[in-house]
Amino acid sequence: MAADILPRLCMHYSVADVEIRGCEKTCAIVAKAVPATEEDWQTEYLAPILSIKVVADMDEAIAHINRYGSHHTDSIITENFSKARIFLNEVDSSSVMVNASTRFADGFEYGLGAEVGISTDKIHARGPVGLDGLTSQKYVVLGDGHIRQ
Known about the structure:
Elements: H1 2-15, E1 19-22, H2 24-29, E2 34-35, H3 38-41, E3 49-52, H4 58-68, E4 73-76, H5 81-90, E5 95-100, E6 139-146
Parallel strand pairs: 1-2, 1-3, 4-5, 5-6
């Protein structure tokens, strides 16, 4: 699958001057890809750089996301509803999405009003805490290729 998808995706990224960093498999498929380091998997670049890791299966993908991800927002593109449910349940992020842009991860989009901050921690209220303060939320977004522009 990666051999079919990555060249087409990376062609678009190349036009947009996005640098691709990848695992050995990615570099074998995408000629312009730079070998990724361990640090790359843990970096939020704040620049047009994308790290791509080709994985063998869903379990490896979820393990990679849970180890290296920001725990903020993660999305899967799939037509397999049972795989989508596994992703939704096992990815440890505050927002998980199926077939939708991660740009929907926004307090306003969730109907919470203006966003004043973002927390990926599971720690919440200080001081007197009621039942509400003892819970955390996980947002689930199901889409059909929806994007936010």
